[in-house]
Amino acid sequence: MASRDVLRQTTRLASSGALLQVLFRVVTFGLNAFTLRYLSRELIGVVNVRLTLLYSTVVFLAREAFRRACLSGSTKRNWTKTINLLWLTVPLGVFWSIFLGFIWLHLLEVPDPSVVPHYQAGVVAFGLSAIIELLGEPFWVLAQAHLFVRLKVIAESLSVVSKCILTVILVVLYPQWGLYVFSVAQILYVSVLVTCYVTYFVMFLGSPEATKKSFPIARMKALLPNLVEDETFVNWKEARLTWSFFKQSFLKQILTEGERYVMTFLNVLNFGDQGVYDIVNNLGSLVARFIFLPIEESFYVFFAKVLERGKNVKDQKQDDVAMAADVLELLLKLVLLIGLTITVFGYAYSQLALDIYGGSMLSSGTGPDLLRCYSLYVLFLAINGVTECFTFALMCQEEVDRYNFVMLALSFTFLCISYFLTQWHGSIGFILANCFNMGIRIAHSIHYIYDYFKESTYRPLTGLLPSPFLILVYIISGVITGFSEVFFCCNKGWMARLIHVSVGALCFAATIVTMFCTETKLIHFVRSQFLSRYMKKGI
After folding, report:
1. Helices (H) and strands (E) in the chain — how many of each?
2. Which BP terms from GO are recorded (predicted)?
3. How many Å apart are CA 210 and CA 203, to the nearest integer?
4. What pLDDT, in 10s, does the model give residues 380-393?
């Protein structure tokens, strides 16, 4: 596949992912806001921190390394061996579910049954849901490798909406069920997710469209583990790369979910405070899930396909290097400006957002300060997502192994800093520790990118330098909206709130106009790559 075709399909994947996720997440956002009125902070803390951590840890440790290894390189490979390798995620998931489930049941503090009933059933259900989701892993990797634009997003969106609707119904009708409600909803979520992938491939394989695309898999039976005569069961090069990524993924999970591990194992916050922190964390990470994650996942595939892993810049096709450098520069600029916008405007509108979303339970206490700090953290998330997706797409196995030692030191440092900052500044300490963690990872990735391109004429890191005039507009907007919050928000009535929102809207409009005037190359990239197909349809 030509590089420009890969770029076109990748941007289509990322833009479709972002737009469809916004559409479906708006629905779930409203459903979650409604559900908060019926739940205690303690129940939210157990579900969203303790049980969700069990589920995310199992699926991450079981599949992340396989995804990284099997999405590297060309789609022209022995897919039978790749699929055989991917099915190993299931027994690995069973092992982690049993091992971690035992810890969650017998070694961690058990919530008060009168406040959070049916904890044991919740642990079993969330561990089982992780195993069910892993049954769809070969389908996910095959779809992602061949850039199936809408399958992933529609499957995830339908499963999330189904889960939220069922949760709302059960919470309203059977509030006494406790964790049974969330256990049933979690099982439904993964079941819908896997069913969507299986159904799609049942319909797609053997169809005229699959024949036209010369799709490497012809029958559903080929998506099951298969022995190949006189050949190894798996591709050992992929298996060794998977092992390297596995050692890294173990550490990356600690960094990604570090604050939840500290909460769970060190009991620095009670279940109620954990619930408030998690709600604010989820609200603050909406942009990361809507925009940054689809961009990171899609362009990891782009960079892995356009440039060859392990080769230096001189040994690559120079046309591909030019395209990759240009795309990287513009992606960095795009996520930087999105992150700056969230940071500047998030500071003055955090309290208002929490009051509208969850009432006084969230807008009083540490909630607003948590969300303000998270607005800054979003900027770190934005830059780290793009820099790491390029770095991981190009690292050879030896570089991945060396990076594992960096991650080991960083994991230990992060956990220590999280603990001490939490003792000093409560739940805000977790976000400050995450900012430190992301800062170190960004520095490593920037160093790798600089070294990679230093022998060429391309300087993609200039994407991290926005226009000085645009920076000035951001500063002025931040000052104006900050004063607006002091004078008009948030206990002075709805008219004062509307004035505060109007001030923010004017400052935001001024920022966007300045962006269009000063970042013309970026605007052209977004319009030509991300928005072109919607503009053609008149959307």
Report:
1. 24, 0
2. dolichol-linked oligosaccharide biosynthetic process; glycolipid translocation
3. 10
4. 998 998 998 888 88
